[in-house]
Structures are given as structure tokens and as C-alpha cells.
Amino acid sequence: MIASLRGTVLSVELGGAVIECAGVGYFFHATPATLGLLRRGEEATVMTTLSVKDDSMVLYGFADAASKEMFGVLQGVSGLGPRLALAAESVLNPVELSQAITAGDTKQLQRIPGVGKRMAERMVLELKDKVSHFAGEAPVVESSTAIDAPTTAHPQVVEALMGLGFPEKQAQSAVEQVLAEQPDLDTAQALRAALAGLGRKG
To answer: Annotated region Domain III: where (predicted)?
Structure first.
């Protein structure tokens, strides 16, 4: 199990990054908030979880222990895999997820792409007693210029939304609306805003 990575950040993309450790570059998927803390050419440490399936091994990275723990807790829900868990943490941080689950706020949970009414209700039912301790663990997230500037945000955000399962037309429309209202958003911020908007529409 790869529990963490520490090394030089070689590249930062919209959906993940590469950190070189002892001459080996490791690619991991991460949320916009985590990626926003990384800067190319600088040393960084990320907590990681390796998801192993019959046909693949996928590494997920987190800026703090609470995010990594929540990622694992979420997957305790029947039918909720790592991809959906990462989407959940792309929209809501561990504290917000904890608050929504303990309060039974299924509408808030349905902001997460791929989470409908039934899944939201299942999350509340199965996790209500397992997430209360996250309430005091809000991660401190600072903005960064690691991810590309707004001029290239549009196509990358659309591609990321399509990767999360949204149709191209719907993703395109959501991103155009977000950037029209807030043109100064960087790529990570635009993705979060677009996800939030799509969640409300759903």
C-alpha cells in the first residue's frame, strides 16, 4: 500500500498530478482543492490511497488526513466507489459532508454529480454515525497558481466534467455560465463552481 508521496511536483493537471519520488513519477487523482496546493518544481507531500481492482491500480492523493479518511468512509456506502467518493470531495469538504450527512440534508448531497435521491438517502442512513468526528477537522486550503490560468480553464473543466459522467453539451453549458458570471476564476475554482451548479440543477 502506498500511504503517502513526498517529492518534487513534476506536473499538475485538472484531474491529478505527478510527484517524483526517488526517480519514479507517481500519478494520482485528486480534488481541485488538493491540486490547488501543488506547484510545479516544488517539493510536496500528499497522503495517498491505492485502489486495486482486477484490471487496474489507481492512486488517489489528499492534502490532509481528514480528506483521506473521509474518502475511505464514503466508500463504505453500498454502490459508492472511489470515483464517486472523489467527486463528493470535489464539491464538499469533509466538514461539509459530515454536516450534510448528520443533518440528513439529502438535497445538499445531491449536489454531488452521480448522487441521486436514493444514494443521498443511503449515505445518510449508512454514515450518520460514522462522520460526526469530522466536524472539527476543516482543512485549510489556500489558492495557488499551480493549475492553468482562466484563459485555458474552459476546455479542461469541460473535459473533467465529462470524465465525471456529464454529457458534453451539459458540461459545456455549465462552464460557460460559470465563467460568464465569474471570469476571473482559475481552473480549480471553475470546476468547483460548475459542479455546484450542476448539482443544484440535478
So the answer is: 153-202
CATH code, 152-200? 1.10.8.10
Q: Under 8 Å CB-to-CB from 188, ≥6 apart: which residues?
A: 14, 32, 33, 35, 36, 147
Between these two residues, 192 and 93, which has the higher pLDDT value? Answer: 93
Domain at 4-62: CATH code: 2.40.50.140
* The CATH fold of domain 65-134: DNA polymerase; domain 1 (1.10.150)
Q: Tell me the domain boundaries of the chain.
A: 4-62, 65-134, 152-200
Annotate 25-58 with b (16+ C-beta within 10 A) or e (fewer).
ebebbbbbbbbbbbeeeeebebbbbebeeeeeeb
